Amino acid sequence: MSAKRRIMIVGNGEIAEGAAKEIDAADLVVRFNDCRSIQTGGSRTDIVAVCNTGRPARAMLGSAEWRNSPPIAAASEIWSVRDPGKFAALRAPLSQSHPELNDFCDDYTDQFTAFCKATGKRHVVIDQSVHESVDEALRPHEPGLYVVPSSGMIVIADLLLRYPNDDIAITGFSHTGWDGHPFAAEKRLVDLYVSLGRLRRIAGKTSIVPSQGA
C-alpha cells in the first residue's frame, strides 16, 4: 500500500501558528485567488483555485501584479471553481433575487484557459456536479437562503472526491465573510468531515477577509 499523500488547503485567513513548515512539507498545496496566505502560510503553491466569474475574476486577470506574483508563477495548475454552465443557468434567477449581483455570473473561464496556455499551466474547471453535491451535503446543516457555496467548500469537496484515501488538512478558514455564502452551514459540514476522519484542521486562530468571491 502506498503512503498517504499530504494535501494542504490553505484559505486566505490568518494561518494557524507554526503551520508554515507543515504546509511547505506537504505533497500538494492549494491556495485561493490572490494567495494572501503566502509567507505566514509558507510559500509552496501547487494549485491556485480561482473564482472565474464576476469581479474577482476580472480583477485577477487584469492585474499584472497577480499574473506575475510568486505563488501564481509557482503553481502548476489553476482551478476554476465555477462551472460556466452552472453559472449561466444562475444568471436569470439571480437577476430577480439579487439584482445587485448583475455581474456575478460574467464568465472569464476562457481567459483563464488562455492565461494557463501562455504560462505552461494546466487549467482545471471544477464540474458543476461538485457544486451540486455541496448544495446537497449542506442541506441537512440548515444553510438557509444563499447564493452559492464558497470556493473553499467547493475545493474541499472536490479534493475529498479526488483523493479519498489521502491526508487532507485545512487552515486559514473561519467560515465567515460574504453573506451570499452559507458559512455557518459550511462550518457544520466541515466539522462533520473532521469528526469522520475525512479531513483535519490545523489548529489555530483564523479569520477570513470578506469578499464576493471568498
Please, could you describe this protein's structure?
It is built from 9 helices and 7 strands. The chain has a 7-stranded parallel sheet with strand order 5-4-3-2-1-6-7, sandwiched between helices. Helix 7 crosses helix 8. It starts with 5 loop residues before the first strand and ends in a 13-residue tail after the last strand. The C terminus is likely disordered.
CATH topology: sialyltransferase cstii, chain A
Strand order of the largest sheet: 5-4-3-2-1-6-7
Largest sheet: 7 strands, parallel
**pLDDT average, as an integer?**
92
* Topology, number of strands: 7
Provide the fold topology.
Layout: E1 6-10, H1 19-24, E2 28-32, E3 47-50, H2 54-61, H3 64-67, H4 70-74, E4 77-80, H5 84-97, H6 109-119, E5 122-125, H7 128-138, H8 151-162, E6 167-171, H9 183-195, E7 200-201
Parallel strand pairs: 1-2, 1-6, 2-3, 3-4, 4-5, 6-7
Helix pairs in contact: 7-8
Summarize the structure.
The protein has helices spanning 19-24, 54-61, 64-67, 70-74, 84-97, 109-119, 128-138, 151-162, 183-195, and strands at residues 6-10, 28-32, 47-50, 77-80, 122-125, 167-171, 200-201. With 214 residues, it is α/β, with parallel strands linked by helices.
Question: Which properties best describe this structure?
Answer:
single chain; about 210 residues; alpha/beta; sialyltransferase cstii, chain A; 7-stranded parallel sheet; 9 helices; about 40% helix; about 15% strand; disordered C terminus
